[in-house]
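Allow me, if you will, to draw on your knowledge of protein folds for a short while. I have a record of one protein: its chain in single-letter code and its fold written as discrete structure tokens. I remain grateful for any guidance, and I place the record below:
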Amino acid sequence: MKKILPILLIAFLFVHMASCEKDDICVEGDTPLLVIGFFDIDDTTQSKDVPDLRIKEVILNTNINTIADRTSSLDSIGIPLRMDATSTQFEFITNSADDDDTGEETGNIDVLTVSYNVTEAFVSRACGFVANYESLNVTLPDNTENWIKDISVVQQKIENSNNIHVKIFH
């Protein structure tokens, strides 16, 4: 009996250790950003920086934090879409600055509405689900003072942040 007890104990520990699962670490579980590229309206193949760009989410009235505020050297950006809605409105502000007296925004503001359908994709047990977006559509009200001259949706499905989904021409 004394010889059987250690053997059973070792067998029990081996079976118990073999049934343990590895710690799951989420590496690729991020909801993708909407990637927007800025292009020259006169030469649509040429990328073009937007001077002093600021982007605000309209409903939450907050600046987008995935890009540096009032940056002048960006020809493409990644911005988050709302997962709890089927559209997100953004103010795209070029030549953004604050009025010295009032503190109000003095740049040229164009309001874009991005419409989409949200779908969930299971990534892994560690990551759970991420939101992907389908049927992407971007609208801009007609206005002669718009700095954005044209918009082209390149990919209607957003499953990663590796490629440009929307081109903005200015």
Remarks:
- The radius of gyration is 25 Å.
- The chain has one domain: 31-169.
